[in-house]
Amino acid sequence: MRKGLLKKAFPSDSKAMKSMEKAERFLRTAQMNMNARAYDGSVIMAYLAVFNAARSVLIRDGFRERSHACISRYLEKHYVPGKLKREHIMLLDRYRNLRHSDQYDVSFYADERDASSMIGFAVELISEIKRILADRRIITR
User: Which one in 36, 44, 105, 139 has a CA-CA gap of 20 to 30 Å to 9?
Assistant: First the structure.
């Protein structure tokens, strides 16, 4: 918040749910790309799935991100331990960096292992985020 990367906003259950719907749609597209052996597309779509799932918590809590990295920091501060595992945050950061390499590094090409592991993580994180959203208590420390 000090750097302006996280801003207060109006909390919105409906926008949070729309973000989760997007997450699930991106996950399905990632799985289709995986089946078609389009691993770069699968990695990008799987990352967009976890990004939108994670962002839904911020939206529900009344925040707006200005950086993908600040989503991890917010979840780490407010939901670890308890609602999320530290491993979830580490993987979110790892896959954010992998997506960045896939999208911007001209010499990087995602492979089947990258895509498969990201899809597996997306499935797990979406499930955990749904559990958080179902719990009506907003965490603010």
Answer: 44
The partner residues of 6 in beta bridges, in order of sequence, read 65
All domains in the chain, ordered by first residue: 6-134 (1.20.120.330)
| Tokens, residue 37 | 């052996």
